[in-house]
Amino acid sequence: NLTNGHLLAQAQEAAQAARLKVWEDWSPEEADAATGGSGAADAAAGAAAGSSSGAPAQVLEVVVTEVAAADEIYMQVAGEPRLAWLAEQLAAIGEADAPVIPPQLRAGQMCVGQFSLDKQWYRAYVERATDAGYDVYFVDWGNRERLPAARVRTIDAALSAVPPQAHQARLAHIKVPGVGTEYAAEAKACLAQLLGGGQALLAHVVATEPAGKERHPKWTHGKKVVQLLEPDSGADVAADLLSTGYATLPKASKIRDAVARAAVEKLQEFEEEARVARRGLFMYGDPGDSDDEASAAPKPAGAWGRAR
C-alpha cells in the first residue's frame, strides 16, 4: 500500500523466514489469524449495535493511546514484544550525534519523526508534504502532527517492515455524534478523559470493519468494534460514556442479533440516567432515535445534528 511497499514486504518476508528479532516467535498460522476480518455485509449489518455475530471473537489486553474522535480511538496490545524492540531501535536514533535530514519525502512514504511533546523519535507515515514540512501519522500510536524537515529522518527497511502497532477501534453498541456535528467535540473530550489514564483495559472484539478503498496504515488491522472493560471491576467504558449523555443507543427492537440486543438492553439504564438528568445530548430533550443520527456528515439544524 505504501510507496516501495513491495520492497518492504520482501524485507519482512526475509526476516520472518529467518525468525529475526521481533519475528523469532512468528508463524504463518499466527499471521493468518491476525489478518481476519468481517466482510462488508457483516459490517453493515452490525453498524447500529456494533456486533455482527454472537460471542466476541477475540479478547485483548490493550492501552488506549489516542482518541481522535468519539468513534475513532487507537490502542496498542499490552505486552506486544515488537513495541519493546521498536522503542529500543528508535532510542538509538535519538542518541545519534546529528539528525539526518532526508531527501524530499512524498505523501505515502514511511519515515521517522520527532514528536514535539517528548522529543522522542517514532515511526511515521507522511500524509501530506508541504513547504512548511510534513503532516505525519504516527503509526504505532495513532496521533498526528506537522513536523519541519529537521525533525524527520529516513527509516530503514527493518523498522518499516514491522506492522503498525496502533489498532484503530470504536466502541460497540453505542452511537456518538459524528465529526463536524454538534456535541462531537464534547463527546471526544469526554471519552478522552475516560480513557486518558493509560490503564490497561480488556477489549472484547465483537466485529472488525474492513478498510474499503482507503490505503493508509491506520487500516492495517481494520477497525475493531470493541467493548472496553476495566479488568478488575468489569465496568464498561460505553456505560460511562452513556451516563455522561454524550452517546445514545440504537433501538433494541431493531437489532436482530440476540447477543447484541442483550448487550444494548443491559446498557439502557445508563442512557436513561443521562436522559432523566438532562445531560449532554439530552440537555434540551430527547435527541431522537433516527437510525442515521451518528453519521459523520454534518447535519441540518436540529437538537442532535446542528453543524457547528
Describe this structure in words.
This protein is an alpha+beta fold. The chain is built from eight helices and ten strands. It has a five-stranded mixed β-barrel with strand order 1-2-8-10-9. The model is unreliable at 1-48, 50-54 and 290-308 (pLDDT under 50). This is Tudor domain-containing protein. Residues 104-162 form the Tudor domain.
Number of strands: 10
**Considering DSSP H and I runs of 4 or more, what fraction of the residues is helical?**
25-40%
Order of helices and strands: HHHEEHEEEEEHEHEEHH
Number of helices: 8
Sketch the major β-sheet: 5 strands, mixed, barrel
Gyration radius (Cα, Å) is 21 Å
CATH class of the largest domain: Mainly Beta
Mean pLDDT: 80
Strand content: 15-25%
CATH architecture of the largest domain: Beta Barrel
Overall number of domains: 2
- Shape category: elongated
Structural class from helices and strands?
alpha+beta
List segments where confidence is low: pLDDT < 50 over at least 5 consecutive residues.
Answer: 1-48, 50-54, 290-308
In short:
The chain is of the alpha+beta class and 308 residues long. It folds into 2 domains: 5-35 and 81-161, SH3 type barrels, CATH 2.30.30; 40-80 and 165-308, OB fold (Dihydrolipoamide Acetyltransferase, E2P).
